[in-house]
């Protein structure tokens, strides 16, 4: 018998919610070997932590077709002397001989990209960000703004010798109004720190994601991150109220005073939400925090096929309605890798199934929420939609169930590396992309036991947002695999009217694929805006569009 | 005894929710003279309906300092011949001698502004909108895009001889996906029609406002309207997923295929949400509909002072949390005017109080919602926050309670006219603006019994959004009153870090006041974007910025 409250097909009334006080209720203790996303992110804080042990090649070598833009000036000792004139010792780091001292800022988290920057600037004030940008713009020095450097598309690291401008030292919480829920902070505040601060005041940050222990609030906004709470709290385009932004020419544009509603003029801040550092540097964020839920439930369910996952989603929207805060799905292969990776951690279900669903509810009344969840589970079991499942009985179990979803990204690269695609697709055709990739890789002779490069393709993601994470677990990165996948994945998405980047952004990886999601007219305007704000093209070059 | 379920200070347990089945429960029938916002809006559909009987003066006469821009060409018979070459009889209306035939399109709803357009175009296709714009741009003919013409800042009518381009004939619902909730329609679909359509499928439009019977979905988006559901469903910047827009040069930009998440490139559609027809014409809208609540409760409460209104709001956020869908406040003067206006309709409370609150909850489980509301009301009564109140017992009573809030705008002009201000202010200083206006108008000798021009200033609005509607009820519009109010109101808002337009937009009325809410850097970028998209300045000139 599983240690969670339990659901199974033949005895569907045996599941129990915490308040029901069933006999076999107990706390699941995962033991010393337990991972939790919390621990992982804390590790990230203390030392640079990568998704892979494979050392990356220089981006310039991996992508020889991308050439350094000769309009940009090379860094000189005069430039460094100028920066030193107003930055302290700790705000300016010159690369040593082997670049080791700033390697963590030159390489991305996935270790797919590696830049060759010789200079890392970490200003402590917005005014100094402005001075840096003004100088770089006048002298045509290219710049990569960098937050927590947790991006998944190579957007936050240099491609060649761009100066790295890190926001890590601009990291103060500015103010919070507990009546309106408006929270203001510097861009460099770690997402988890912002959320911890808000939780103490009865609120939460309206966005959550796996990298919360190292990503910055400013980076989250600049990349328009999605994450785990979007289904409930909506996108950052709705919750961000104001920004402080340094433009390429050094001008500071400030809308941090905005209240919840301000309908005067174009909503300029929206341009910077998701601009990936290409037209300005976000230095401050004002955002509407959400009241902290008083009750949270999590259940982990199994279904027989993908069609049923969709039915469970429709049912959950109907029955859980305003308390539904997450609806995540995972295929069997996702959890196969995660089981391997978590080793001794006990899997919540006794058997294996083709698809799993994690549902979270968040509300203000535990009794009401339990009752709604109970009614939903009972009807889903009775109609044969859900074939097995468990409901977390306490905070520990809740965190443990979540880890089976949150550890998938890390587990998916445990064989060596991973090709990550993050796409939006209409719900009905979402999973067929994963199947198509496995077929295609098998046919190409690339998928199978070692030494074949590909382990397999897995699919998981935010069903509630129409967002699939397609991960191709590999033993090594090869050009053959890349050619087999691209542009195939993008063409598939385009033909199904999806987006080639649901939440990860474009960065370096998807620069050339925007045409699969945007029309020529849109791309023309996007380029136009880029050129207008950044006529010298110094902001995060070789990326985005 | 009042006919609603009843709350009062001394016997706070006497209130009853519908399921409690109290003895005195009965349906309030308002009788033949009853108004309902529903009836009013239906009237609007059948004939043009204004807020005032006072005929407007020409804007050119009221504001002699505003001069016609001589860059614009005057309409010629060649121009009309060109438009006739592809538009049918019903799509092109030339003004007759007295302009009577297109007066309803030249005048705004408040009858404060009156243009002198000689040509009304009502194309039936987006392609023809594009042809019109291309021609107007090449020939420097100024254009006013017009939706339902229900705006409150003179933004949707011409100032001089601009061509009126109405979207009324582009009015088809395009598609709806009941799994994702994504709804797509033409810009000219009436908001109420869109909502009715969605309700049949178990969803609602995520925005509601008093003018729903005549305003267009496209107009709502182009002006970034707020309305009554913002507290629950957030702003249009979060819920609009894609737009179809015709640019000033005639190019059609289309992002209607977007799914819930698309993170590729700047989110261009956001520029058009709230652009008030100054850089493009919204012709199609894709928006995320919200599931239709299965249960709705409304209560109408009284408090002794404004400080207590704030306390009730904080309490409601805590206790009603995810089911709180509206929190509206009204001062005594607002309801004094509404009582006069509604005449024989019975007021829900027996006594009068300084402040009233309307709270709406929307949820998926009637029993749970009733229980939450009951607990909230009990605690608010026990702590002396709420001194009287009623809870609607059925749909009819619910609509009747809402009308005491929804009829305020109309009632506020029943003495002749109204100066309307729609501002964001921090909650604590929100009502002091109303008090300051009454004091100032009294000191200036402008407020009092006839023949003094001002009846008094009233305050009401969306507490949940920090949004105050300040209405100055007047017997006539005079320059003295206007000078007494402006820039005073704007200066007050600026000094409290508010917005001079929370949801009404800028239009003609607030063009010169954007500087009270936006910094010079922001205004520079806004002007820059305007000039960039519309270099000939033909789109909705003399307005916005």
- Residues in β-strands, percent of chain A: 15-25%
Radius of gyration based on Cα positions of chain A:
24 Å
Greatest interface by residues involved: A-B, 88 and 88 residues
The oligomeric state of the chains shown is: homodimer
Q: Considering DSSP H and I runs of 4 or more, what fraction of the residues of chain A is helical?
A: 25-40%
Give me the number of helical elements of chain A: 19
Which class best fits the helix and strand makeup of chain A? alpha+beta
On the 0-100 scale, what is the average pLDDT of chain A? 89
User: How are the strands of the biggest sheet of chain A laid out side by side?
Assistant: 1-16-13-15-14-18-19-17
Shape of chain A: globular
- Low-pLDDT ranges of chain A: 1-47
Biggest sheet architecture of chain A: 8 strands, antiparallel
Total strands of chain A: the figure is: 19
Report the span from N to C terminus of chain A: 54 Å
């Amino acid at each position: 018998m599983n240690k969670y409250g339990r659901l199974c097909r033949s005895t569907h009334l045996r599941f129990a919610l915490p308040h029901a006080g069933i006999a076999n209720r107990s706390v699941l203790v995962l033991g010393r070997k337990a991972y939790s996303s919390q621990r992982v992110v804390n590790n990230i804080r203390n030392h640079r932590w990568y998704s892979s042990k494979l050392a990356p090649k220089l981006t310039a070598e991996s992508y020889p077709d991308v050439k350094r833009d000769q309009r940009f000036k090379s860094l000189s000792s005069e430039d460094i002397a100028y920066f030193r004139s107003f930055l302290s010792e700790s705000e300016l780091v010159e690369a040593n001989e082997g670049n080791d001292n700033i390697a963590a800022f030159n390489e991305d988290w996935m270790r797919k990209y590696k830049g060759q920057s010789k200079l890392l600037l970490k200003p402590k004030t917005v005014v100094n960000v402005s001075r840096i940008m003004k100088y770089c713009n006048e002298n045509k020095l290219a710049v990569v703004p960098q937050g927590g450097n947790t991006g998944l598309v190579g957007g936050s690291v240099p491609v060649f010798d761009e100066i790295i401008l890190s926001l890590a030292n601009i990291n103060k919480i500015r103010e919070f109004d507990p009546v309106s829920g408006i929270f203001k902070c510097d861009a460099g505040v770690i997402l988890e720190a912002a959320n911890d601060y808000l939780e103490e005041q009865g609120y939460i940050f309206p966005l959550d994601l796996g990298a919360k222990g190292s990503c910055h609030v400013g980076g989250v906004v600049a990349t328009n991150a999605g994450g785990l709470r979007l289904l409930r709290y909506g996108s950052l385009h709705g919750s961000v109220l104001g920004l402080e932004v340094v433009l390429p020419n050094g001008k500071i544009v400030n809308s941090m005073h905005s209240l919840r509603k301000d309908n005067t003029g174009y909503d300029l801040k929206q341009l910077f939400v998701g601009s990936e550092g290409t037209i300005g540097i976000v230095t401050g964020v004002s955002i509407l925090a959400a009241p902290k839920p008083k009750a949270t439930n999590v259940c982990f369910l199994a279904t027989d096929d993908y069609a049923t996952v969709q039915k469970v989603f429709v049912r959950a929207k109907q029955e859980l309605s305003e308390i539904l805060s997450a609806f995540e799905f995972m295929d069997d292969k996702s959890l196969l890798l995660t089981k391997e990776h978590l080793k001794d951690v006990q899997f919540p279900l006794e058997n294996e199934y083709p698809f799993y669903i994690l549902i979270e509810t968040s509300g203000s009344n535990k009794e009401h929420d339990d009752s709604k969840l109970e009614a939903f589970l009972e009807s889903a079991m009775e109609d044969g939609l859900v074939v097995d499942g468990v409901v977390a009985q306490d905070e520990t179990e809740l965190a443990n169930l979540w880890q089976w979803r949150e550890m998938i990204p890390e587990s998916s690269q445990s064989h060596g590396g991973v090709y990550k695609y993050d796409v939006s697709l209409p719900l009905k055709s979402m999973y067929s992309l994963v199947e198509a990739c496995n077929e295609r890789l098998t046919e190409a002779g690339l998928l199978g036991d070692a030494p074949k490069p590909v382990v397999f393709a897995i699919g998981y993601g935010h069903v509630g947002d129409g967002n699939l994470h397609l991960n191709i677990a590999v033993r090594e990165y090869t050009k053959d695999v890349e050619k087999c996948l691209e542009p195939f994945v993008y063409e598939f998405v385009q033909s199904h009217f999806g987006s080639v980047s649901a939440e990860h952004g474009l960065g370096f990886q998807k620069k050339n694929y925007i045409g699969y999601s945007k029309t020529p007219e849109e791309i023309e305007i996007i380029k136009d805006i880029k050129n207008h704000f950044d006529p010298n093209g110094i902001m995060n070059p070789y990326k985005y569009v």
